[in-house]
Design a protein that fits this description.
The complex is a heterodimer of chains A (267) and B (295). Chain A has 267 residues and is mainly α. Chain A has 2 domains: 107 residues, no CATH class; 139 residues, no CATH class. Chain A contains 12 helices and 5 strands. Chain A is globular and about 75 Å long. Chain B has a single domain, classed as Divalent-metal-dependent TIM barrel enzymes (TIM Barrel, Alpha-Beta Barrel). In chain B, strand 5 and strand 6 form a beta hairpin. The longest helix of chain B is centred in the middle third of the chain and has 18 residues. Classes of the chains: A mainly alpha (267), B alpha/beta (295). Chains A and B meet through helix 1 and helix 3 of A and helix 3, helix 4, strand 5, strand 6 and helix 5 of B.
């Protein structure tokens, strides 16, 4: 007789990996093969994860179609089963998975659109947090300014893509074929900032490359000094003011403590 | 009803009346039209983030008693509870202050992987001890009683030794939790496994029943000709399930009763229509006393 732990591992492995032979040994047949009974659960799991991924990656779903999307989702489930029970969080690794997914190679911008889809999804569903009151920065000594670190709002994502994924995303979701046809795929990379606006929608802004580097560095926990160094030519004061007005940051620290925040959407 | 009375009722217990499951497509319609339904239930996991989604529930919650029904806690996991997930559930419960909190007699997590379904447990003394430990940990962390729902199932394990109804009653007796009696699940499982649905109902302790679920199910004919009933929550409640519901009310007295619908979600009016059917049965038969205080 298996322990509960053994049984659950056998069943989980079988349902994720499609080989239910070990799990089937524990199951009563009774008019229907154990494998067929387990397949009912497998179907529900695949359908649930496919739906979760479709909601997080709506533009990818439109670009590849339902059948392709479902088979990619099944392979993704096997490669990267979710680790948390909140499927809003189901894995940003889907973009990386698509980047290495041979059948998707015909759409060179697919992984970029996936990264952007995920950034928008995070912007919509990330935890609530109060924006930093710009006046609070008035308390920082001039001598400490360069050691200032800022904490990004959980909804903020920074995406750099080789193709104009924001334009593709808009055209695809609007099902606007004319807009899609007008996109110049060779126009060069785009540098995007995504965040949740006051109405709960996604605010999408294109930044200059240097402005994006500055913002991405700050959001990754760099000091103001290091972010300016990383950016090169940038009007840091104006840019910081814009971000503060937009509620891009929630808090700040001064000093050398390592304030790094992992940012999933950084390249 | 005055706004004051509406708000007062919304803060009280779930009444022994019919409610509906609140799903995303109906947020706006419910918030703007305030339909005549006694209470609402949400899937807790859908409201763990920030932004517009939980804001809808904040607004709706001001006018309706709310039940938070979890689908991801995995009370049956031998590995124990995911404390991060439990903490997120706890924060949602603080935010929405639901009158009822419920979960399932099932498991979804093994080896840290989450399987998005409610998987059946082997019904053994070992599994019973695991479930009781996890229910106790949940109730201790949330500092409140929870309801545990009987699952629908499509398989049984060779080494199960305890009938499901006895297992569920034992969980309630040992942990003090309540029972969320899903009448459709009892019907589906009884049909799939050859159980006596009426005997199942009769074996449950009436005082522990805090809520009833009703939903539609699908009938699938498999390749070998076998029939399997699938609990897909994608249609109206079946006539046989309405009949079993009437029998449940005879056993338990009036109990808060929820209409669940999760696939091919229909217009709000259809859900309200189903809720009226449940309410009619509650009004006709639900005069017996004796069910557990829903709070």
């Amino acid at each position: 007789m298996p322990t509960l732990h053994e049984l659950q591992n056998d069943v989980a492995r079988g349902l994720i990996g499609r080989d239910t032979a070990a799990a089937a040994l524990h199951v009563v047949g009774d008019g229907l093969a154990p494998a067929a009974r387990l397949a009912v659960y497998r179907n529900t799991i695949v359908a649930g994860l496919t739906t979760a991924l479709r909601l997080s990656y709506p533009a990818v779903h439109r670009l590849v179609g339902a059948a392709f999307f479902e088979s990619a989702a099944q392979l993704f489930l096997e490669a990267r089963p979710p680790r948390a029970a909140c499927l809003d969080d189901y894995d940003p690794g889907f973009a990386d998975f698509l980047a290495g997914f041979a059948p998707a190679a015909a759409i060179p911008y697919l992984a970029g659109v996936a990264r952007f889809d995920w950034a928008v999804s995070r912007a919509l569903h990330a935890p609530d947090a109060a924006a930093l009151d710009p006046a609070a920065l008035g308390a920082v000594d001039a001598a400490d300014e360069k050691r200032l670190r800022l904490v990004p709002h959980p909804s903020v994502g920074l995406v750099r893509a080789d193709h104009p994924v924001d334009a593709i995303w808009r055209a695809v979701l609007a099902q606007d074929d004319a807009a899609m046809a007008a996109i110049d795929l060779a126009a060069g990379p785009v540098f995007l900032r995504v965040r949740r606006d006051a109405g709960g929608g996604a605010d999408i802004a294109r930044l200059e490359p240097a402005s994006w580097r500055f913002t991405a560095s700050l959001c990754a926990g760099a000091t103001l000094h290091d972010a300016i160094q990383a950016a090169g030519e940038v009007d840091a004061a104006t840019l910081l003011a814009t971000h503060l007005i937009d509620g891009v940051f929630t808090a700040f620290t001064v000093g050398d403590a390592d304030g790094r925040q992992p940012m999933e959407t950084l390249p | 009803m005055s706004a004051f009375m509406t708000a007062a009722i919304a803060r009280g217990p779930i009444p022994a009346q019919a409610g509906i499951g609140l799903r995303f497509p109906h947020h706006r319609a419910v918030a703007e039209t305030r339909p005549d339904v006694a209470w609402l239930e949400v899937h807790t996991e859908n409201y763990l983030g920030g932004g517009a989604t939980p804001a809808w529930l904040d607004a709706i919650r001001r006018d309706y008693p709310i039940s938070c029904h979890g689908v991801g806690l995995s009370l049956g996991s031998a590995d124990g509870l995911d404390r991060d997930h439990l903490a997120r559930i706890g924060r949602a419960i603080e935010r929405f202050a639901p009158a009822l909190v419920s979960e399932h007699l099932s498991w979804s997590v093994a080896g840290g992987n989450y399987l998005s379904d409610l998987l059946p447990l082997p019904l053994t003394e070992e599994a019973l001890a695991v479930v009781c430990r996890n229910v106790e940990a949940t109730q201790a962390f949330l500092r409140r009683r929870v309801l545990v729902e009987n699952p629908s199932s499509y398989l049984r394990y060779r080494h199960s030794t305890i009938p499901e109804w006895e297992f569920l009653a034992a969980v309630a007796a040992r942990t003090g939790c309540g029972i969320l009696c899903d009448v459709n699940n009892i019907y589906v499982s009884a049909q799939n496994h050859g159980w006596d649905a009426s005997a199942y109902l009769a074996a449950l302790p009436p005082a522990a029943i805090g809520e009833i679920h009703l939903a539609g199910h699908a009938i699938r004919r498999l390749d070998n000709g076998a029939i399997l009933r699938i609990d897909d929550h994608g249609s109206r409640v079946a006539p046989a399930v309405w009949a079993l519901y009437a029998a449940a009310l005879d056993c338990f007295g009036p109990v808060p009763t929820l209409i669940e619908w999760d696939t091919d979600i229909p217009p709000l009016a259809t859900l309200l229509d189903e809720a009226r059917s449940a309410q009619a049965l509650l009004d006709a038969g639900g005069r017996k006393a004796g069910h557990a205080d829903a709070a």
